Amino acid sequence: MSQPTLIGSVQKALRLLEAVASSSTIVPAKKLARLTDLPLPTTYHLLRTLEFEGYLCKVDGGYLLGTAAVARTRPARQELLARVRPVLRSLSEELGGATYLAAFEEGEIRLVAIAEESEAQRVDLWVGVHESAHATAFGKAILAGMDPAQRDDYLSRHDLYDLTPHTITSKADLARSLASGVTVWSDAEEYLLGVSCLAVPIPSEDLLGAVAVSLPSRRAVAESDVQSLQRAARRLGASMSNGLITI
Q1: What are the pLDDT digits (tens) for 1-51?
Q2: pLDDT value, residue 114
Q3: What is an example of a Pfam family matching this protein (predicted)?
Q4: What CA–CA distance (Å, rounded) separates 207 from 102?
């Protein structure tokens, strides 16, 4: 039996689509070239074509699945990102700090999206978020929202690493902090010296998540900052709880 005629450019384009679809975050063109083992010029050419046809969407920092691809598949994380990033960017511009969306999924606390306005200081997340939730405001907000069994399971699998002199490293101390009943969570230089974060949980029945902003520790936090964060959490909750997308 003769071999079917295969079109190489179509195969390469499909490899790019698969790489974007399998990613939980925006994927830069250079990373896509590495993932698919394609020359960078070829990658750019195929990405432009896929974008023109609506199968990919170009956003700040890389590519997401486009409407043509999403319409033919089950709603994916990329569609979620397209909805939440405007909220995060607006919050970043309003507060002057980098903003973060994190969620609990498949037993881990994962960073879903980041946004920052041009003058904002972004925290370099050099330690995996799933290994440092105890030291971040959004991690503590999510831990506090877990049921006891979930929290015990999570903490049994994660050490409380000492990232700065201010990091909580005692599980007993962390448990007391999580039981405080606060509605706005913070870390005061617990993850990185010179930087503090605020976070609030996202009101949603579909996921356990939190939105956060990082600010210089020297900056005083105003009540208006907290209110802005809470408004963003409500907007994110509405965007992520419409029955079309869950994570």
Answers
A1: 445 566 888 889 988 988 887 676 788 999 999 888 899 999 999 999 998
A2: 82
A3: IclR_C
A4: 10
Phi, psi of 203 (to 5 degrees): -75, 105
Instruction: Write down the pLDDT at residue 135.
Output: 92
The amino acid occupying position 222 is: A
Across 19-39, b (16+ Cβ under 10 Å) vs e yields: bbbebbbbbebeebbebbebe
DSSP for residue 169: -
3-state DSSP percent of the chain in helix, strand and coil, to 5: 45, 20, 40
Question: How far apart (Å, rounded) are the C-alpha atoms in residues 228 and 147?
Answer: 27
Q: Identify the structural domains of the chain with CATH numbers, from first to last.
A: 8-70 (1.10.10.10), 77-240 (3.30.450.40)
Q: In the prediction, which pLDDT does 126 show?
A: 45
pTM of this structure:
0.66
Q: How far apart are CA 88 and CA 202, in angstroms?
A: 13
- Structure token digits, residue 182: 């606060």
For residues 124 and 70, give the distance between their C-alpha atoms in angstroms, rounded to a whole number. Answer: 31
With beta carbons less than 8 A apart as the criterion, state whether 128 and 111 touch. no
